[in-house]
């Protein structure tokens, strides 16, 4: 429960992630550009409040552990704990699978958030489409 209503986290389809990915992460790109070729092989979770999707995250198995991508909360729902609950769910799901590590290409703007969740930077800063990133990872 949040102050705003009932928060539910459930598995969703890749298609259901697209609108939030687009509006939060890449509003200046065309919507099809936020679809990943590997989406069909991913596991996607969404957080809904009173039945409306407000945050998404997509998980992919890699040799280095679970990689999450396209993690986004609608602006009007940010800073209310929704992302923390969704990331915690992703971590628990990864642990249950027996995974040892979870990682992402983190936007530098989100580094404090990941540091607060036990992630540490691996290597330096790089750029994709004009956005600065660092690989962040943590043991599970
Ligand atoms: C990063 C992101 C997914 C986090 O989702 P969120 O729903 O805002 O996450 P939370 O609300 O749990 O935490 C965000 C901040 O709010 C704070 N917060 C959490 N609950 C809170 C509450 N009840 N009241 C006030 N602040 C709160 C947290 O401490 C956190 O601060 P920090 O960023 O300094 O660590 C979201 O900010 C987002 O979509 N950002 C833009 C896209 C992006 O950068 N995605 C990540 C790509 S790597």
TrEMBL record:
Q: Which SUPFAM superfamilies match?
A: Acyl-CoA N-acyltransferases (Nat)
Q: What is the lineage of its organism?
A: Bacteria, Pseudomonadati, Pseudomonadota, Alphaproteobacteria, Hyphomicrobiales
Question: Which species?
Answer: Rhizobium rhizoryzae
Asked whether the keyword Thylakoid is assigned, the reply is: no
Q: Which GO terms describe its molecular function?
A: acyltransferase activity, transferring groups other than amino-acyl groups
Q: What is this protein called?
A: GNAT superfamily N-acetyltransferase
Which superkingdom, per the lineage?
A: Bacteria
- Domain N-acetyltransferase: from-to ranges: 4-140
Flavoprotein among the record's keywords?
Answer: no
Q: Which UniProt keywords apply?
A: Transferase
Which InterPro entries does this UniProt record tie to the protein? Acyl_CoA_acyltransferase (IPR016181), GNAT_dom (IPR000182)
